[in-house]
Design goal:
The chain is an alpha/beta fold. Helix content is about 40%, strand content about 20%. The termini are close together.
């Protein structure tokens, strides 16, 4: 397994600074945002993605995948993004989201989302790339893994796969749901996001009313037991990238963390994951 870092949290840095920062952490590469907002704006992808890739690769790092907002073949600049990625040898990208419209709509939305995926599949075949549907808790069609299974069933696994997120899977299925979901789609796993989440009884920042609030926490805390999860990843033979999503508690949002705090927490999480890999005998580049 190789480890990369999601650049959403580094968007105040230019390409060279991003590459230097991630190289200093000791990671293998970059999970690069190609969306708006993002490090590469979709309308500039033909000129700016090659520049970003060169800065990253000049530091000995890899571009693991692109995080995009490609929700269908008709998404703005979708074909330009995938064509440019393919030309640069970048073979994976994160799909954009379809929001769940509320009770009574899910069957219709499943059909509509599958139709959108057919267009994406055609582009993936054309440019020899693979899109990952990201598990994201909340009002999204990809909130829980069984629904993703229904959405991607029958599509070419080399074109459309599962982008598992251990944090979002834990918050939507903190007891056994995350495990069953990983089990269900283990043969479609192509990408992995590493985060963890907990639930806290706290006052709402706007209303002052106390309620249960979900927060992102360091990887050694939260709903998802990382050692157990990595044991299953070893069992299924996952050997792709794991992307660190450095969103943490303490501040109201990751944007309120200062740069030094964010980088130190990422280093701590990386050390924790490397320790698990060493204990379980999971090969990794470090």
């Amino acid at each position: 397994m190789k480890f990369i870092m999601f650049t959403k949290h580094l968007e105040h840095l230019n390409y060279d600074e991003v590459a230097d920062t991630i190289a200093d952490i000791g990671l293998n590469g970059v999970d690069l945002t190609v969306r708006s907002p993002g490090h590469v704006l979709p309308e500039n992808v033909k000129t700016d993605l090659p520049k970003a890739a060169k800065a990253i690769r000049d530091r000995g790092l890899e571009v693991g995948w692109l995080t995009t907002n490609i929700y269908g073949a008709d998404a703005p600049h979708a074909e330009d993004i995938l064509a440019t990625a393919s030309d640069l040898g970048i073979r994976q990208f994160k799909l954009g989201y379809h929001r769940y419209e509320g009770f009574g709509n899910i069957k219709r939305q499943i059909a509509e989302t599958r139709e959108a995926l057919r267009g994406i599949e055609r582009l993936c075949h054309k440019y020899d790339v693979c899109g990952g549907m990201h598990v994201h808790s909340g009002p999204y069609m990809s909130a829980v893994t069984p629904i993703i299974g229904t959405l991607i069933e029958g599509f070419d696994p080399q074109a459309i796969g599962l982008y598992a997120d251990l944090g979002h899977m834990g918050v939507e299925g903190s007891y056994g749901g995350w495990l069953q979901g990983l089990d269900l789609l283990s043969d479609r796993l192509v990408m992995l996001a590493m985060k963890n989440m907990g639930q806290f009884w706290e006052a709402d920042a706007k209303t002052g009313e106390h309620k249960w609030q979900r927060k992102l926490v360091p990887l050694d805390r939260g709903f998802t037991p990382y050692k157990e999860a990595f044991g299953y990843l070893k069992q299924i033979g996952y050997n792709g990238y794991g992307s660190f999503h450095s969103e943490y508690q303490g501040a109201a949002t990751w944007k309120d963390l200062n740069h030094a705090e964010l980088i130190q927490q990422t280093k701590d999480d990386y050390a924790y994951v490397k320790g698990i890999c060493a204990e379980l005998g999971i090969p990794h580049d470090a």
